[in-house]
Write a structure and sequence with these properties.
With 155 residues, the chain is α+β, with helices and mostly antiparallel strands. The chain has a domain at 47-152: Kinase associated domain 1, KA1 (TATA-Binding Protein, 2-Layer Sandwich). Helices cover 45% and strands 27% of the residues. The protein is built from five helices and six strands, in the order αααβαβββββα. It has helices at residues 2-20, 26-32, 37-46, 55-68, 134-152, and strands spanning 47-50, 72-77, 82-88, 92-101, 108-118, 127-130. Strands 1, 2, 3, 4, 5 and 6 form a six-stranded antiparallel sheet that branches. α4 (55-68) crosses α5 (134-152). The relative contact order is 0.15. Residues 1-19 form the signal peptide. This is Lipoprotein. It comes from Falsiroseomonas stagni DSM 19981.
Length: 155
Amino acid sequence: MRRRQVVRGLLVTPFLVLAGCTPPTGEQQASAFTPTASAVATRARQSRRFDTLDQRLMIQASLGALQDLGFTIEESQSEAGIIVGSKIAGGRIRAQVSVRPVPGQSSSVVRVTFQRIVPRPGAMLALGETLDDPLLYQGFFERIAQSAFLTAHEI
């Protein structure tokens, strides 16, 4: 008899828990995929549009900009439009660049993120915190623009 009550309790309890849960409303679902104002501002700071579809040119310009800023290139996949580099400057700084064409337009978007890699004692994985210094991003994109201009005009 006692065993039957335990089994019945185990079978009924999940249904009671689920009965208390309500599915998210359409508004809640939509807001989960709507970027916040700060996320939009961050993405705008990290991205620039260039009037060229020459992905090779933009990859070369990005590689040069990273190297000018003292980064060592760790990985570069031209076909995928991805570059990863790092440098030691008051800790390890990691840069990730993506280059992609804008659909239906003759332009490309370059997006870069800079992160400070913070080791955590006793943890297997380090923590990456995104750097938000506007001058860092501005300097990177100015170097790309210069390099792309000089290369395009064979200077």
